[in-house]
Amino acid sequence: MTDLESLGLVIDGRMVSAGDGRTYESVDPFTGRPWARVADGTAEDVDRAVRSARTALEGPWGALTPPERGRLLARLADLIELSAERLGLWETRDSGKLLREMRGQAEALPEWYRYFAGLADKVQGDVIPTAKPQFLVYTQRVPVGVVAAITPWNSPLLLLTWKLAPALAAGCTVVVKPSDHTPASTVALAQLVTEAGFPPGVVNVVTGWGPETGRALAAHPGVDKVAFTGSNEVGRSVAHAAAERFARVALELGGKSAQLVFPDADLDAAANGVVSGIFAAAGQTCMAGSRLVVHRSIADELVDRIVRRAESIVFGDPTDECTEMGPLATDGQYAKVLDHLDAARAAGATVATGGGAVPELGGYFVRPTVLRDLPDDARALNEEIFGPVLAVVTFDDEDEAVRIANSTQYGLAAAVWTRDIHLAHRTAGRLRVGSVWINAYRTVAPQVPFGGFGASGIGRESGIDAVKDYLETRSVWVELSGTTRDPFTLG
Ligand code: NAD
Questions:
Q1: Could you say which of 6, 273, 433, 472 has the lowest number of CB atoms within 10 Å?
Q2: Any idea what the CATH number is for the domain that residue 49 is in?
Q3: How many domains does the chain have?
Q4: Does 177 contact ligand 1 (Cβ within 6 A)?
Q5: Are 266 and 365 in contact (CB under 8 A)?
Q6: Structural domain of 299
Q7: Residues 276 and 231 placed together within one structural domain of the fold
Q8: DSSP codes joined into one string, 405-457
């Protein structure tokens, strides 16, 4: 077919074919048809990319001053701004997520690049006073080195940017392995990096079908840090591979986030927040608010409002501005969500709405689903589904609400809905999660750290400290007295 978008690997600042010339097709989950032909990289291509990143690190990129790096990041932000529509559309075609969401995400990316552009020349060491007056001691902050960024399909560029922008601000070079289902926007971004004037090899992209390229990258001895976003299962294997050679690792993994609704909450606002938390993006976000933890006295009323809104959700073409829910991104994800629904019914759940596919639409559409009366150990209450499925649990008092919210292995995010300022902050302070929204849900910003407790991952992205995660510290001791000392004691 000739009308397919043709995408290669990006190595050394150029778009190139996979070494053995293999390609695969990326399928639009709404039309079910391929729309792009993508290079199917191999372990040898990963090796080429890592070597290119090392050469840039030790060469032209390493020679730039921090303000020069900041200027390049700012230029990249400008180019992304001009390309946001195309980047958003490509993400929609790859993932089936709404164009208005993916365009919005693409439009927000420059905020991250500008924020980290501003931090590039604020990386500095300290002069450290010690009890040894004969020494001047200072620290230097140096780039950790070559970074592997391995990303998932749900928000390809946003989640990549959370790694790429601070890594570049710190002076690292990067090899990106995007999800095999959503490679296109990452290749396009790497081309903008070249266009912005970054030296060749600073940002490389190796696409590839299946786990081979990701596995080769995580295990590559030339990679100093692996920054991964994705499932817990793959995250564990990435962490093992990195540990084998003591490479640094950051993991952004899954969640089973709770929205706690107290009896005095604004129920319209809470219902809207719960809908946005679990039905936006068809629930395919790591921060999905997949558990509603609601006070027994208002449970029926709140669930009714959520069910009414869920039943009015408009399905359809994700590029149509009126569509509110598109298909799930992959056949595997579709099968997984339906399997969870079967398991919930088998566990005795009451299905308040939804509960299955939308056969009249074909494709991978799943109805927004609300499940009640689940036993505590039900999979739908404890496992990440990554689909439009809300599990409802009731509580009778504050302690029980907190206990339920903290009862999963995850700890990514939560919301507290109440008008009581004391209760709101008290509860936020007891939740073992990385982000708490009070009377809101699903908002992020470059200045604010994001990441999880427990099985939701290791490390935080965004925020002023994100650059530090891409730095090593070197301590330098300078002898000032010019005298010698006893060589057989610790000085
Ligand atoms: P995934 O774990 O299947 O894949 C993630 C990436 O790893 C992809 O690029 C994939 O090709 C690659 N990969 C696959 N096998 C590999 C291996 N053996 N070694 C190295 N890399 C390998 O995840 P997904 O299905 O793309 O994304 C969905 C998951 O991501 C969900 O579980 C979701 O919770 C999680 N997620 C978390 C966050 C967060 O910030 N915490 C954000 C988005 C998604």
A1: 6
A2: 3.40.605.10
A3: 2
A4: yes
A5: no
A6: 258-438
A7: no
A8: HT-SS--SEEEEE-S-HHHHHHHHTT--SSEEEES--S---TTS-B--SGGGE
